[in-house]
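tool_call predict_complex ligand=nicotinamide-adenine-dinucleotide
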Amino acid sequence: MTTITDAATAAVARLDKDLFIGGEWRPASGGGRFPVENPATGEILCEVADATPEDGAAALDSAAAAQPGWAAVPPRERGEILRRAYEALIRRTDEVALLITLEMGKSLPESRAEVAYGADYLRWFGEEAVRVAGEWKTGSAGDGRILTVRRPVGPALLITPWNAPLAMLTRKIGPAVAAGCTTVVKPAAQTPLTALLLARLLTEAGLPPGVLNLVPTTAAGAVTEPLIADRRLRKLSFTGSTEVGRTLLRRAADNVLRTSMELGGNAPFIVCADADLDSAVDGAMVAKMRNLGEACIAANRFLVHETVADEFTRRLAARMSALTVGPGTDGSAAVGPLIDARQRDRVAGLVDDAVARGAQLVCGGRPGPGAGYFYPPTVLADVPAAARLTREEIFGPVAPITTFGSDEQALAMANDTEFGLVGYLFTRDLGRAVRMTEALETGMVGLNRGLVSDVAAPFGGIKQSGLGREGGATGIDEYLETQYVAVGL
Ligand code: NAD
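tool_result ok
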């Protein structure tokens, strides 16, 4: 019988662990490699080639050289390559999910869900490739015609975080490839393994050399800064923290680069007095615990009407404390480790700060002993506004609860943040639902629902949560330019 350990060893052993540039696997120019850690054990899974700035330049050379040829490939053909890669991912769900769990930590069922969700972006954009449309119309004075065409923006640099090692990549690679852009991809250094497998699967699906160039590196700034300054690069798409996003936007300004930014969040989760509490608690579990709380769309602040706060807190704490913590590869564990020691200590520090300022610890709150970066599902009640976790992104399994007395107060609290990614709202009153949804300063709203991710929806934030949208009918626009031709008659 093959055990999970055998399968893990085999999945890691099978991977290409070099850089992928111009359709070839090659070691880093400096010969360097960096370790990839299993956050459940602290053990090193393997070492991966560590790209240098020279490798980054070679990747852009390759993307720039491939750009005209790739733009000329018929949209249907581009779409079919994405479709084949989608099918390969689905066929190999167990293997991809295992890699995600090994390098990122979440449970196998959650990783399988990410494979389904992440693969779907390739299918969705494969279908969108043939729908890119222009326009032909009469000019305003009637003496000419206006022809509008959409063209690929050009070589794109795609930078992704570790929290969804597959989906964060496919959400960018799918539309870029569908639109006819070539790419340089820099995955997070904590989770390069899923990216290496994805590059292999896309190549087997027929992606030509140079369209996708993959440069895992521990020197993110040094490798990407010269690329962002290079005039051949025409697009930067980044998912990660607002702090790094700001730095990249400053750099992109010098090259007047098209940018898409999916940045941090501080999602309010509002439970009104008239909410269906069963549905609110179910929604809270999804919005808080999906991806171990390590999600930009994770509920970060629970704002609960004072008349239902005790009941909501009791039910949420019962559900949270019933979750088993353990390695993601262990079939009985629902909650895996956080990504690294730094993140676990950050989460613990935020909880300690809230308790020191007067919050009540209802459950959890103590990191587990032993190897691995585990932190238990935690509920805090009576959290004061001064607590750091009301302003900072927690990125962990901690639910801080605060009460409110009126809709106006809930909205003022919800909007009192520089972030604007998503808000969750639970109410059975239609008028209140409309009024409060319209007043929420967020790019997305989960209305009586704890899950907003959907390939068919425009995912993205306002305020300091970002620029642009990924997925949906407009997702491909992020990788297209508009050219208009004034036609004389
Ligand atoms: P991060 O900003 O530290 O890193 C993200 C990526 O940027 C990584 O690949 C990293 O290597 C790279 N990077 C870091 N410094 C860089 C630099 N100076 N130049 C170029 N690249 C650099 O974020 P993280 O810790 O990996 O991910 C967590 C953050 O991502 C959270 O803030 C979360 O909210 C955000 N996130 C947002 C979304 C969204 O869609 N809005 C989705 C997932 C995660």
